[in-house]
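User: Structure please.
Assistant: Input sequence and predicted structure:
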Amino acid sequence: MTTERPRVTAAALKARLDGAFFSGVVRHFVRTTGEEPAYVERQVLECLRYLYLISRYPEPLAGLFLPVEQAIDEVWHYLILQTREYRELCEERLPGRFFIHHRSLPYEDYQEGQVSREQAIEEALRWLPLYRDEFGPFDEGALPHWTMVRFLHERLGLSLEAIAALDAGNGAALRGVERDR
């Protein structure tokens, strides 16, 4: 594991949204959810990280299930409703420069209709090294927002360092850890 400085800082990612727009999104979710501003700001940041990864890596991430919590998906919905700003974000400020479409699909429907549990683990693991390489390793502040990372940490007992060392090829090892618990 390298301890390189993240390539895309939180400040650089936030700057991809107009400052007033970013603040407005945070204010909206503070008002509607009752969460603390710092927590909501992190939600918006993790949503932007998700969108950044989709934009930068469309091939390996195409069609994969959303690995973030419902609250992040709600932030994404809100961004989409700000059509001009969302289009600008996608087509001018994210690396892939294409419009990122959204399709809602409940996890149960995704799992039943498309993939086995093993495939779901393999797909979720595709996100981990991409996130780490672009933003640095997951930290405690990211845990509430990324479903698979929280599962690995809380349910399987992996440290954040162990999670940072995972890559897409670790699916079989994780299934073994899960069976042992």
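The mean pLDDT is 86.
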